From TrEMBL, chain A:
Protein name according to UniProt: Methionine biosynthesis protein MetW
Lineage of producing organism: Bacteria, Pseudomonadati, Pseudomonadota, Alphaproteobacteria, Acetobacterales
Alphabetized Pfam families for the sequence: MetW
Gene3D superfamilies assigned to the protein according to its UniProt record, in alphabetical order: Vaccinia Virus protein VP39
Gene: metW
Chain segments carrying region Disordered: 199-220
Bias-annotated ranges (Basic and acidic residues): 203-220
Domain of life of the source: Bacteria
InterPro entries: Methionine_synth_MetW, SAM-dependent_MTases_sf
Length: 220, 421
């Protein structure tokens, strides 16, 4: 299991219901079932991965974030997880809405397009940046909706989502030290990881674009 | 080269009624109340079991057979002498492992392999009125057999499972019409089904599939040996009609790729003489409408071998039961309705080249199960073998079946059987 998946698992309360969108080889849902007693299920777009997961006894359906979330009932999960996939879906905003309709919390990770290396490469070469994280040419990339950490926070503000927890993560999945400053995280974080919830008082309520940590998180 | 070539010259020959075979069965004198309102009594359910029931009675898997299958799942068939229809899937060490699980397979209600069906003797009026019996031999039900549904078949299986002292099935597994029974089990007796594996199936029978069934039925009706369904009175069977029905249906079980790969446009060698002298009413192979292409020969064999083991009235009864299948009918067309609140773990499997029960219909089922917040796995197996792929060698399919069952067994708290340790 990747290190950032351990960070995700650490955000999830044991014994809860979890839907992992883009479950890949099923490592996270397997881990959540075995070590945290979760009812963890997956959706995966790659049929080979689905077959491998089901053949390992994991509950995974073939499907994708854009087309299959609408069929799940409101509040049917505690957590809905989307790992490193938000930038590749057709309608990221709708996918986030669906995640927070289906689940009480959404856990979202994505590669940060605000990383200094990307900024520098675009500035100096004038070409689309090609790095270890963003490693496909522009005409072949599945990443049709890249965003930065600050872009994502702005969207959360527009949609009225509450950020319960966030962290910058490096490519190997280690938690990066940029905890106190979003601007530094946006410059030095290769990946970002967010735990979102709905704002108390209903959906669609517009809030400021910045983070509102829960009291529990502030105490940590 | 192919076994079926041998049988083909007998095609459409009038066939003797097969010698009766004694099948293991459970008898339910009180019978069953069917969906149509008729009380069918007595009811007999013929079945076979494989493996050992655990002392906790928690390791039973019910396998449901398809339209023309039967209870001889994993052993030599007593009539045809061929291997059981799912012998490659069920057995010691197989994906449905009889070292670990107790596997039950019963002939469906309406069938012709020992369970009560159109060929069963019809209780006479004097029996039901308690009057003195006559010397008449009991007549078969024939076309007067009451219409049955997939749920009626499941009611019969339910009676059998309880008769075997099993309170809860670990899993119910089946393909095609067997998959329809799996879904009816999960909808009708949810508390008795821990895991359900509907394969190459759908929660409803499509208009196209009803249409195919109708052509099959009309082929039987058009046979001069049909005799209004009372063919036994003249010692005949509507072999030609039944064979044509089977041939047509068999095409729907395959795919264009599979037919091309197996037969292409290959022409039979003219040197192949009729293997046995017989009275064949059909033109011979050298004539314009004889068996010219290999695919024709294959289909004719499929047709002629079928009539030896299947009853025409059963075929009519069972195809009609499939046509009635629509799990949404009692829920305003919502296929999530029958599964509301279900705790069953589902594994839905489709095959990419299956055009009889295409993946799109499995997806309708999966989305309905998602709406019901059910625990569901869903895999489309890549295969060019068409609908019949679930009966054939597909390693990914085997792995999926084995993996889903062992994962479900872990969740059910089933230990490995002592024999395996």
């Amino acid at each position: 299991m990747r290190l950032d998946q351990r960070l995700i698992a650490g955000m999830i309360t044991p014994g809860t219901r979890v839907l992992d969108i883009g479950s890949g080889d099923g490592a996270l849902i397997d881990h959540l079932f075995r070590t945290r007693g979760c009812d963890a299920r997956g959706i995966e777009i790659d049929m080979g991965e689905v077959t491998r997961s089901v053949a390992h006894g994991l509950p995974v359906v073939h499907g994708d974030a854009d087309h299959d979330l609408a069929h799940y009932p409101d509040g049917s999960f505690d957590y809905v997880v989307l790992q490193r996939t938000l930038q590749a879906v057709e309608r990221p905003r709708e996918v986030l809405r669906q995640m927070l309709r289906i689940g009480r919390y959404a856990i979202v990770s994505f590669p940060n397009f605000g990383h200094w290396e990307l900024r520098l490469k675009l500035l100096t070469s004038g070409r689309m940046p090609n790095t270890a994280v963003w490693n496909t040419p522009w005409y072949a990339t599945p990443n049709i909706h890249p965003c930065t950490i600050r872009d994502f926070l702005a969207l959360c503000g527009e949609e009225g989502y509450r950020v319960h927890n966030w962290m910058a993560v490096d490519e190997d999945g280690e938690r990066a030290p940029w905890r106190r400053s979003i601007r530094l995280a946006n410059l030095f974080g290769e990946q970002a990881l967010f735990l979102l919830g709905k704002t108390p008082g209903g959906e669609g309520r517009r809030r400021g674009p910045e983070i509102s940590l829960s009291d529990a998180e502030k105490k940590r | 080269m192919w076994l079926w070539l041998k049988g083909s010259p007998e095609f459409m020959d009038q066939t003797d009624i097969p010698a009766p075979v004694e099948h293991d069965r459970a008898v339910f004198p009180d019978g069953l109340t069917l969906d149509c309102g008729t009380v069918l009594a007595p009811v007999e359910i013929a079945y076979r079991t494989y493996g050992t029931l655990a002392p906790e009675r928690n390791n039973a898997i019910l396998v449901c057979h398809a339209l023309t299958g039967d209870q001889y799942l994993a052993e030599t068939h007593p009539l045809t002498g061929r291997a059981g229809w799912w012998a490659r899937m069920v057995g010691p060490g197989k994906p449905i492992d009889t070292n670990r699980f107790f596997v039950i397979c019963s002939n469906v209600l309406g069938g012709c392999m020992g369970s009560t069906g159109p060929r069963s003797p019809r209780p006479s009026a004097s029996d039901t009125q308690g009057e003195a019996g006559t010397d008449d031999v009991a007549e078969p039900w024939g076309t007067d057999f009451p219409p049955i549904t997939i749920r009626d078949m499941v009611r019969g299986q339910h009676a059998l499972v309880r008769h075997l002292g099993i309170e809860r099935l670990f899993a119910v597994v089946g393909g095609s019409m067997g998959g329809m029974q799996v879904l009816e089990w999960a909808a009708t007796y949810p508390e008795m089904v821990f895991a359900a594996m509907p394969i190459a199936t759908a929660p409803f029978h499509s208009a196209q599939n009803i249409a195919f069934n109708e052509v099959s039925r009309q082929a039987i009706f058009a046979d001069p040996d049909w005799h209004g369904g009372r063919y036994w009175e003249v010692g005949a069977i509507p072999a030609r009609g039944l064979a044509v029905a089977r041939m047509m249906a068999h095409i729907t079980y395959l795919s264009e790729e599979a037919l091309t790969r197996k037969f292409g446009r290959r022409v039979r060698r003219e040197s192949t003489p009729p293997a046995t002298p017989c009275t064949v009413a059909e033109p011979q192979s050298l004539s314009l409408f004889g068996e010219i292409f290999e695919v024709e020969s294959y289909l004719r064999h499929q047709g002629s071998s079928f009539v030896h083991r299947f009853d025409a009235n059963s075929y009519l009864t069972i195809t009609r039961a499939m046509d009635w299948m629509d799990l949404g009918a009692e829920h305003d067309g919502d296929y999530a309705g029958p599964f509301a609140g279900t705790a069953t773990r589902f594994c839905v499997i489709s095959f990419s080249s299956d055009w009889l029960f295409p993946t799109s219909q499995s997806r309708v089922l999966v989305r309905a199960l998602n709406r019901a917040a059910a625990n569901v796995s869903f895999v489309e197996i890549g295969s060019d073998k068409g609908h019949d792929a679930f009966l054939l060698d597909e390693p990914d399919f085997d792995r999926t079946v084995r993996g889903f069952l062992s994962g479900a067994a872990e969740h059910a708290g089933l230990g490995h059987h002592a024999a395996e340790a």
